[in-house]
Design goal:
This protein is mainly α and 191 residues long. Helices cover 69% and strands 0% of the residues.
Length: 191
């Protein structure tokens, strides 16, 4: 019932009902909180953003979207996850710029996605580097980049990723394997 209601409200928002997105938030707030906790669970200890602050910042970005055609709950959560990713990357860049004068520290070439297990903490350098690599991946394989966003940043499993992106689970598994291999290679020096 809740999924259908969220989808109906998103369709209303697309049709011009400016208050529809405000009515969506209470219906999916718990899911957005969980998404924010997953994102922050990969950040360094002592992060200054809380899940609530991350949800609110992402929501403010979502209500300003003019190019998105809202299609349903899964798509909304996918866009919310991307907004959270951007907020955290910008936060890491700002923190690094202030803390270290903007000098980029080198990332160990032995780090790969195996260090990106759920619950693992990552420093600002890794988050920024991964964000840049995802942008590069999106240039030649946008679907694989979206799979990585859902799997790694949002912590969704294969079935949840497939539902959010409107793909089959076999496609998600294939794209995830391809993207992980490419990211490992790039993190190791790109040869």
């Amino acid at each position: 019932m809740k999924q259908a209601e969220v989808t109906a409200l998103l369709v209303s928002a697309e049709a011009g009902d400016v208050s529809a997105l405000d009515r969506v938030l209470p219906l999916i707030y718990d899911e957005l909180q969980e998404l924010a906790r997953r994102h922050l669970g990969r950040e360094r200890a002592g992060h200054t953003l809380t899940p609530t602050a991350l949800v609110h910042e992402a929501y403010l970005k979502l209500v300003d979207q003019t190019r998105v055609q809202w299609q349903g709950r899964g798509q909304f959560l996918g866009v919310a996850s991307l907004a959270m990713r951007r907020i955290l990357v910008n936060h890491a860049r700002d923190r690094k710029r202030h803390k270290r004068g903007g000098d980029a520290a080198r990332l160990s070439l032995t780090e790969g996605l195996e260090v990106a297990a759920p619950g693992a903490e990552h420093d600002d350098d890794f988050i920024i580097r991964l964000d840049g690599l995802l942008d590069r991946l999106a240039e030649f394989d946008p679907r694989a980049a979206k799979v990585v966003e859902c799997r790694w940043f949002a912590g969704l499993d294969v079935a949840e990723t497939a539902a959010a992106l409107g793909l089959g689970t076999a496609t998600v598994k294939r794209d995830w394997a391809l993207a992980r291999a490419w990211l490992r290679r790039e993190l190791a020096g790109g040869d």
